[in-house]
Write a structure and sequence with these properties.
Blueprint (H helix, E strand, L loop, with lengths): L4 H6 L3 E7 L8 E8 L6 H6 L8 H16 L3 E8 L1 H7 L1 H14 L7 E5 L10 E5 L7 H24 L5 H4 L5 H10 L10 H11 L1
Helix pairs in contact: 3-6, 4-5
Length: 210
Amino acid sequence: MPDFEWEDKLKATTVGVDEAGRGPWAGPVVAGAVVILDHNLDEFLLKGLNDSKKLSAKKREQLYEHLFAAQDKGQVFIGIGMSSVKEIDENNILQATFLAMRRAVAQLKIQPQYALIDGNQKPKEFLCDCHTVIKGDAKSYSIAAASIIAKVYRDRLMCELAQKYPYYGFEKNAGYGTPAHVSGLRLHGVTPVHRLSYKPIQKFLLKNAG
């Protein structure tokens, strides 16, 4: 379970940073950035914050709302950043993810001194000093919170895209390559929100062109 060990060890204003949406075939990549100023969060957050992938959609939604309620109380600061499908295709997903992370931190109403970034790859030219933490969303409350913010925000975006492009199951698969998504591609083709640089989409386009 996450704790405040990393944040306490740094003895600085620390932001946790995580992303959602590197693997899907469609939609933007989203990053969350969370600074927890007051460690005396409500019990629901302290017991519930964890790697977003380990939580049910309902629990993630509840934690998301609690985090924004904590922001209203001045306990936390939240930033959200995105990179578009075009930016993913032009820059590659890793660089687009780093760009989304920088944008998320830039959205904060407080300037952090240090960033804890989930994973093992450190962005260049970041807005503050940073340290990578492998499986950080299961170790640090700040990263876990950022993970939930990014995941829920992106899932909601994909539900909105499902209204515009209703044949791909985006509201259920978040753009991942599920059978429903593949079926939609076969029947209705590629949309403007598909990542053309991704091999499954390239293969589909080549197959249809042939």
